[in-house]
């Protein structure tokens, strides 16, 4: 990118063209809030919830607790029915999802998400089982190889002993 003659690396070349909603020129000046530029619009809503030291107050905790209040756990009967349906088929067609949701008193989206999460858990457990099988096969193969290597070394020693 070419620079025009007389430009500098600072933002001073851009400041005269920045205007607020009221078309006031931005001018640097010290303020009590610590912001250097006035007239750039009111950004105070962005900083609501910040303490003087810049840390967040408990605003996030309030939102998180409100979300936790809305989140309901499934009952044992609902989970049992979902598990039974998962054993039949771990994929969920739209008709089956709606029917299952109506039977259990859930939203179809809740049923879909439960199935998705359950498939993820199933896949993780399947990978753990597969890893266990592969590791035991590897360990047995390694023991067999080590045994063959010892036999080979002893046979080599016998041959070497007879030749010399």
Automatic annotation (TrEMBL):
Assigned GO CC terms: nucleus
Q: Which CDD domains match?
A: homeodomain (cd00086)
Instruction: Point out the DNA-binding stretch(es).
Output: 67-126
Give residue ranges for domain Homeobox: 65-125
Q: Name one GO biological process term.
A: positive regulation of DNA-templated transcription
What are the UniProt keywords, alphabetically? DNA-binding, Homeobox, Nucleus, Transcription, Transcription regulation
What terms describe the molecular function in GO for this protein? Answer: DNA-binding transcription factor activity, RNA polymerase II-specific; protein homodimerization activity; sequence-specific DNA binding
Sorted alphabetically, which Gene3D superfamilies does this protein's record hold?
Homeodomain-like
Q: Which domain of life is it from?
A: Eukaryota
Q: Does the keyword rRNA-binding apply?
A: no
Q: Which family does it belong to?
A: Belongs to the HD-ZIP homeobox family. Class I subfamily.
PANTHER family this protein is in?
Answer: HOMEOBOX-LEUCINE ZIPPER PROTEIN, HOMEOBOX-LEUCINE ZIPPER PROTEIN ATHB-5
Q: According to its UniProt entry, what is the function of this protein?
A: Transcription factor.
Annotated protein name in UniProt = Homeobox-leucine zipper protein
Organism listed in the record = Eutrema halophilum
